[in-house]
Amino acid sequence: MAEINIRGISKVYDGDVLAVDQVDLEIADQELLVLVGPSGCGKSTLLRMVAGLEEATEGSIEIGGRDVTHLPPKARDIAMVFQNYALYPHMSVRRNIGYPLRLAKVAKPELERRVGEVAALLQLDEVLDRRPSQLSGGQRQRVAMGRALIREPQAFLMDEPLSNLDAKLRVEMRAEIARLQRDLGVTTLYVTHDQVEAMTMGTRVAVLDKGRLQQIDTPQRIYDAPVNLFVATFIGSPAMNLFPARVARDDAGGFVLDLGTQRLPVDPAVLAAEPVFADNLAQRVDRRVVVGIRPEALDDAGLEPAVPGDRVIEATVDLVESLGAELVVHVALVGASSAESAAASVSDSAAASATGSASASATGSVSMSDLASATDSAAASAIGSASASVSDSASVSVSGPASAARAPSISADGVARRAVARLSTRSRLGPGDAVKLAVNPAGLHIFDPDSGIALRFAASTPEN
Predict the structure, then answer these.
(1) Distance (Å, whole) CA 312 – CA 334
(2) How confident is the model at residue 1 (pLDDT cuts 50, 70, 90)?
(3) 197 vs 191: CA distance, rounded Å
(4) Would you state the pLDDT for residue 409?
(5) Which of 56-65, 255-264, 452-461 is least confident?
(6) I need a surface site. Which of 5, 260, 447, 457 has the fewest CB within 10 A?
(7) DSSP secondary structure string, 369-425?
(8) How far is residue 289's CA from residue 258's CA, in Å, rounded to a whole number?
């Protein structure tokens, strides 16, 4: 097996359509790296360049230490699994799996032995003599994987291989692919638009948008510490709640966030552990920020009477979605006027991302107030591209404009916004009910409204 190194790779179509923009990736030997992003972000184009199916406009690609940038696909020693299976309908499962070895003129006894081994590994022993039309969707996908496995390539490239399967089968197959990859130790680059696949399968996850790499890290770290507004709203379902706010000081000298008529403290323990975050907040006193709170960071305060009052926000229930194990509760925060609380997307790309997420409770976009404010027209500036893996002590390298995203601005009367919370089924709530939501202070994310970069990573905080 082998590592894959992608350095400064770009792809331009028709002279001016930039599909992939200066992407750098290092995929370690035996790693499963997932490329995730909304439709049209360039992830499949990047995969096809690694496979040799697309010519790179700029940059280089190495597989196993060998420069393959200008080599044809057959010379790269990779195997690809496609979304549509690409099986030969007139051939049996046995012949489909063994076809690459027939092309390589492998001796018949060796071919039969390896077909048997792969079929046993993929639990296809009993269907070897059937044709693809006689198989289920999951079985067809396993045959496609078997045809890739039997070649014993240096790397696997998988282009949304589960998109054509129903929800139940998708869950089974993603666990199976992850297990196979781990058992075989094959370096794998996996492309998907489904954040659930990315989070559950990847050793690491790389988030792309508009051809640029936004963040690359472990799934949990990307969820816990998104580097910008795009990553924050794309990863997680329902999407992260975003609120315009201003930074202020409390009587003890700590930081608080003004959300219109309500205030939330910033956890001093978090600031003590992250001095860059504390410095950026200090520069932001009396200025605009965007506050992000994941639905999971909100709880029903009625079930937690010991919660301090300054960590509670008041709201009115709009809608309750019961998912059996939990409730997804849509609320309007107290302080929002009817005109100001009209929902608006954070950005076109964020809305498309949320809609594309495979989740029964996906909301499709992040609700916020009307963003039309003459004084805040600069809030349509682009989110910077984070091209570094974020660790506890890592900094983010901002390499210029990436995803255009409208950052919210606080309105003249400082109203609060709508939100979504994931609550326990012990909460007995219905539309119109008043509810107090306890906010986990460690779950607050704060972003620069102009660049979209998280303040815990931003190198500096501009005046506004």
Answers:
(1) 12
(2) low
(3) 9
(4) 33
(5) 452-461
(6) 5
(7) -----GGGGGGGPEEEEE-SB--TT----EEEEEEE-PPP---TT----EEEEEE-T
(8) 10
